[in-house]
Amino acid sequence: xxxxxxxxxxxxxxxxxxLAVMFLFSAATKFVSIETFExxxxxxxxxxxxxxxxxxxxxxxxxLLLGVWLLSGRGHRWACVVTSLLLLFFSIFLACVLLIxxxxxxxxxxxxxxxxxxxxxxxxxVLLMVVLLVWKWGDARWRSPWWLAVPLSLVPAALLVVLGxxxxxxMRVVDAELLAxxxxxxxxMSLLLSFRRLHQWWLYWLIALAxxxxxxxxxxxxxxxxxxxxxxxxxxxxxxxxSDCIDGERxxxxxFSAGCTYCLHTAQMISGVQQRNHLDTASxxxxxxxxxxxxxxxxxxxxRSPHYRQVSIPTHDWIAIVQGRxxxxxxxxxxxxxxxxxxxAVGEKEIVRFLK
Length: 356
Known about the structure:
Shape: elongated
Number of strands: 5
Distance between the termini: 73 Å
Strand order of the largest sheet: 3-2-1-4-5
Largest sheet: 5 strands, mixed
């Protein structure tokens, strides 16, 4: 019986560590495609874009914190309870998603593993059973030593970077750099929690707040800490190329490249803002390079966006206007450009305030 109990206890510890690594990996995959994740939350037209952006970052931070907590071995029972409650919350959310007829990816693992709501529900059911096993058979006295906790906390980020280098995951160089900074913070959190004599309450609060603060600094929500970049926009070429398309009313003019991921994100955001706030579709104008006109329908489909007023102009003129940087969104008021926004600098409040 003692051997059986020891085997079950050891198995529970291994399962607990695997759960921790899974939550950290889930957070990492969401982080490198955070725009898609926040737009998924916004796509339900219940919350504003600003609130959706904040919730997306809090969700990632909660998974990071839970992963580090499970990995540390501290507060065994409470860690299992919180994990169960989080899985139940996500399961209820997924059930509601199914009830309204949505079947698109729920972004549980970002864009890397596009799980449907049904697949995610089954995954959560399995994870809940694992948590119950860990809760029942896990040794509450077990603590992860630093030489185990720190390397394991870095495994999810390293794995994701390797997948990116192999072409299995979509990731820019800047995404890998930001991911490295984020998980350096996670490694420090794991190191601190591995100290057995850590009892200062303020240090626990500092550890809990660390992933939240880091996320908001590394990838601030739309419109936070960003400056308008009007100097990279050719206003004279804009008036020359689009004077016939501006009807004198206030318009949001967006310059999109049909093959650009960030253009897709911006188009999704604009579509959600327009529908959520019941804005006049005639107030939006999309400008594409003429060489991409055959790809425009595919662009709208990928962005899950209705067709707005659009125009195509010679590619060299399009590039001259945006100065080679896109997407670009311009607010035009009675033939006068009021503001120009680069990627991520414009949000729901700015668009609604301008058009209303």
